Structure formats: C-alpha cells, structure tokens
Amino acid sequence: MTTIPLFHVLILSSLLFVIGFIGVVARKNTLFILMSLEVMLNAVGVAFIGAGSVWQQADGQVMFILILTLAAAEVAAGLALLIRMQKRYHSLDIDLLNRMKG
Amino acid sequence: MMLTALATIESLFYLAGLVAVIASLKVVTGNNTVHALLYLVVSLLAVAVCFYLMGAPFAAGLEVIVYAGAILVLFVFAVLMFGLGKDELRHAPKSNNLANMIAAMLLAFVVLVELVIIIYHGDMQQSLQANVVDSKAVGIMLYGPYLLAVEIASFLLLAGLLAGYHYAKPDGTEASL
Question: What start-end ranges are recorded for coiled-coil regions in this protein (chain B) (predicted)?
C-alpha cells in the first residue's frame, strides 16, 4: 500500500485544478489562458496517478499518458490559433474575439 | 543529518505539493509571459516529484520529458515568435529583479534538494520500490485493453499536427494545402 493517503492527493489535485480554473476565467491574455489550461490538465493527471497508486493498478498511468497526448495536441492547435490571432489583431486580448461574425 | 531524519515520503510529498501550488499561483497571477512559463516548468517538475513519491516513476519521467521538455518548449517558441508586444511591456512589473529571481530560484532549489534526498535515502528507496507500478504493466495495459484509446490518441496528435500547420502557415500560401 502507498503511504500517502488518497485524500491528501485529491486535495492537492483540486487545489491545482481550482488555481488553473481561476486563471482560465479571470485572465484576459489568451496565452495565460492556455497556460492555466495546462495547469488544470496537470491537476487531473495528479488525481489519476494518485488513484492508480492507491489501488496498485496501471490504469491511472495509462489515463495520464492519454491526458499528456491531449495536452500536446491542444497546445499545438491553440498556439497556432494564437499566432494567427497575433497576426490579425496584433494583440492577445481575448475580448477582441467577441467581434467575430459568421 | 537532521534533514534526512525529517524526510519521510509524506513530508517530501507535501513539500513538493506546496511548491507546485505556489508556482501555479505565480503562473496564474504573473504579468511577464516568459516568467510565467518558467514558473510553469517549476510547477511541472514539482508535480513530477509528487508522481515519483506516489510510486509512478514512469509517469514522473514522462512529465519531465514530454510536459516540461516538449510542450513547454513549444510554448517558449511561440512566445518568442510573438515578440514581446507593446502591451506586454507596458504591463510588465516594474519589479526589483533580485527578489523575483531569489523567489524563483528558491522554489526550484527546494525541488532539487528533495530529489537529492530521495536518491541518497536508502530506506526511502526501499519503501518506494515496494509500491511501484512499473512501466511494464503500463505498456501491457496500453497495448491490451486500451489499444483503441491509443489509436484514437494517435489520430488526435495527427489532428493537432494538421491544425498547427494549417493555422500557423503564412497567409500567401493557400494553394499548397
């Protein structure tokens, strides 16, 4: 059995998740929103790894690898969109995007 | 010696978790993009130490190599491509650089000290070895019951690659794809 109680792992995970969520909601700079999304995904990974180590199953690490893949794909697409946005508006303020039509 | 007596798996875990939380707070509240990115690296490294202490060394290695090593480098490249625009410099903190530097170095140094303690602490190594879920089990799961998920993940990566290529290419080259 693991020596770290699952409850404490979940507290750490939810703390990180809430910090990331506050960043996503409160920031205006799109780059910071992407970074906060990374923090949130990482927090979910902590929860999966903790659960996997409590029950001594490999499933938690498998889910973590899938989350890692998701994060990589998300960052690639998100940063490409950010480059496009920087080219068009010369700013990363997310409020500029509410002018989009169509 | 006193450090090694105090060091149990739990206390190291809580310390690494504290570093991760503080670094994440600095990421979310930061003004300077590059500083926030570097704090994000510290946060990910601290979480990697947490993974190692939870008995998942494979996940800890992946966290360092893929997250901190690849995804964050992608971020840094993108930030360098943006250039630090006017609004960035205007909002940049008029800070005393030294205090900033010392705080960041302290966080990273805590993670380093933890790693050294873990490596040189024989009892802790043994008790960590007892509850490790090794990479062999993960590999068997990945290519057994989770095979379909792996295939879907590969399609997701392909989609990310195509999206990155399509959105980030210069405007004049529509004909090529």
Answer: none
Contact A67, A23 (CB under 8 A): no
B64-104 pLDDT, tens digit each? 999 988 999 888 888 887 765 555 555 555 556 777 778 88
- Report if residue A47 sits inside a domain: yes
* Domain assignment of residue A29, yes or no: yes
What are the backbone dihedrals phi and psi of residue A29, each rounded to the nearest 5 degrees, phi first?
Answer: -75, 125
Average pLDDT, chain B: 83
What is the ipTM metric for this complex?
0.91
Task: Provide the CATH number for the domain around residue A71.
Answer: 1.10.287.3510
Q: B133–A92: do the CB atoms touch at under 8 Å? A: no
Please state, in angstroms and rounded to a whole number, the distance separating the CA atoms of residues A16 and B43. 10
**How confident is residue A2, by pLDDT bands cut at 50, 70 and 90?**
low
Chain A residues lying within 8 Å of B167, measured CB to CB = 77, 80-81, 83-84
| Number of structural domains chain A divides into | 1
Domain containing residue A31: 6-94
In this structure, is residue A1 part of a structural domain?
A: no
- From the candidates B40, B133, B134, B162, which should be mutated to test the interface with A, based on the most A CB atoms within 10 A? B133
Q: B141 Cβ partners below 8 Å, 6+ apart?
A: A58, A59, A62
Inter-chain CB proximity B78 and A79 less than 8 Å: yes
